[in-house]
């Protein structure tokens, strides 16, 4: 019964000075809102990385020619060929599929439109390995690859760049590096990351890219899909063994290629994102501390203003514990109300950032409860001093206070 009466008295006191109460809660509102928004941004970034790994495949290893440094400048030596891809297909039991790739940016022309696009020369199994689906038309076949046909498949966003319907592009002619190609397909949207968007790419047969476009027999990347029954470390060891044999690298000599594990790269990005999220949330949490100091300041002023009321309550039998509880509850309620408004502010800000800024945000129940609970703790901690000061007032001196 005592706690119910104390809460009622505290709410009446807050209603009596509503505008001041709102100003008092402002620091808590901003603090909770900032924490919710920062954590939502960080969680959204981590969710985006998970989605990208699910889309691009965490079981795909990327093999590239190794880099070396000369006079402080990174230089890349071309060492990978289609023969390496064939050797991996035949001699690597832990590899389910191999996709050699050439990637270069070329001027692409359609009508009066000119675009500079990333052009990928690859093999017909590229979509199945990398998880792409064809929306319109078809992907090029093994016959197209063998005949070095000038056919091209477009990413989902190319049609928008050319101001043409995607389906209408199938069968049309475009020019890549002034060479005419026939559009035979348009892929479904894949979605991209902050540094690369595959929906902006175009694909041509690897043999066409090598002998008709670039004139280069080397490949830049070989993607290797790990078998379901194998592990990534086992596949990496086997790939290294096969390629060292193919390149004639003697024992003790360094590899002239590098094997990259996308999953490890994604995990590193997630760790960096998580640390950055905690840093931003910590900075935002400082405003909660500032808000708590503001509440303590206002509660001290309130104690001074209500000194006579405290004296009357003590004269009527209220104990030090009753007075302490009343002011502590009032401070906590202020912070809880501020936390609720801050939660609404954070959710709203996250939604606005997702809608208008295009950032992926995720508000989780754990982050909401953490910020809300922290605001309650702030109220109790910073309410102790004013509450103790009120409880220790002498009733006779309090009644004489004007």
Description:
The longest helix is centred in the C-terminal third of the chain and has 44 residues. A hairpin with a 2-residue loop joins strand 4 and strand 5. The chain is built from 14 helices and 12 strands. The chain is 57% helix and 19% strand. It is elongated. The two termini are 31 Å apart. The protein folds into 2 domains: 185 residues, no CATH class; 178 residues, no CATH class. It has 402 residues and is an alpha+beta fold.
Note the topology.
Elements: H1 2-16, H2 18-56, E1 60-65, E2 67-70, E3 73-76, H3 82-91, E4 95-110, E5 113-122, H4 126-130, E6 134-137, H5 142-146, E7 151-154, H6 158-161, H7 166-169, E8 173-176, E9 179-187, E10 202-205, H8 206-214, E11 221-226, H9 232-247, E12 257-261, H10 262-305, H11 307-315, H12 320-357, H13 365-391, H14 395-400
Parallel strand pairs: 5-10, 7-9
Antiparallel strand pairs: 1-11, 1-12, 2-3, 4-5, 4-8, 4-11, 6-9, 7-10, 8-9
Helix pairs in contact: 1-12, 2-10, 2-12, 2-13, 3-9, 10-12, 10-13, 12-13
């Amino acid at each position: 019964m005592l706690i119910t009466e104390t809460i009622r008295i505290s709410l009446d006191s807050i209603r009596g000075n509503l505008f001041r109460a709102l100003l008092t809660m402002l620091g808590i509102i901003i603090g909770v809102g900032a924490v919710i928004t920062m954590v939502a941004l960080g969680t959204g970034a981590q969710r985006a990385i998970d989605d990208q790994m699910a889309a691009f495949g965490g079981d795909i290893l990327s093999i590239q020619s190794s880099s070396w440094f000369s006079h402080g400048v990174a230089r890349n030596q071309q060492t990978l060929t289609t023969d390496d891809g064939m050797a991996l297909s035949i001699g690597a039991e832990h590899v389910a599929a191999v996709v050699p790739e050439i990637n270069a940016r070329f001027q692409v022309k359609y009508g009066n439109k000119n675009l500079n696009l990333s052009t990928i020369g690859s093999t017909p199994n590229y979509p199945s390995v990398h998880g792409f689906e064809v929306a319109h038309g078809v992907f090029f076949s093994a016959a197209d690859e063998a005949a070095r046909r000038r056919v091209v498949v477009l990413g989902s966003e190319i049609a928008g760049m050319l101001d043409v319907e995607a389906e209408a592009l199938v069968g049309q002619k475009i020019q890549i590096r002034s060479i005419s190609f026939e559009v035979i397909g348009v892929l479904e949207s894949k979605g991209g990351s902050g540094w690369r968007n595959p929906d902006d790419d175009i694909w041509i047969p690897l043999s066409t890219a090598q002998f008709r476009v670039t004139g280069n027999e080397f490949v830049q990347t070989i993607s290797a899909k790990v078998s379901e029954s194998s592990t990534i470390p086992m596949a990496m060891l086997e790939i290294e063994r096969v390629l060292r044999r193919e390149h004639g690298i003697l024992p003790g000599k360094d590899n002239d290629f590098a094997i990259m594990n996308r999953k490890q790269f994604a995990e590193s990005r997630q760790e960096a994102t998580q640390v950055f999220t905690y840093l931003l949330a910590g900075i935002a949490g400082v405003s909660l501390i500032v808000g708590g100091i503001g509440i303590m300041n206002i509660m001290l002023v309130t104690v001074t203003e209500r000194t006579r009321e405290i004296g009357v309550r003590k004269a009527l039998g209220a104990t030090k514990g009753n007075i302490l509880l009343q002011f502590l509850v009032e401070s906590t309620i202020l912070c809880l109300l501020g936390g609720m408004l801050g939660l609404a502010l954070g959710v709203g800000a996250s939604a606005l950032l997702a809608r208008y800024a295009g950032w992926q945000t995720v508000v989780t129940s754990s982050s909401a409860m953490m910020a809300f609970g922290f605001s309650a703790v702030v109220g109790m901690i910073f309410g102790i001093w004013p509450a103790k000061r009120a409880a220790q007032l002498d009733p006779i001196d309090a009644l004489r206070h004007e």
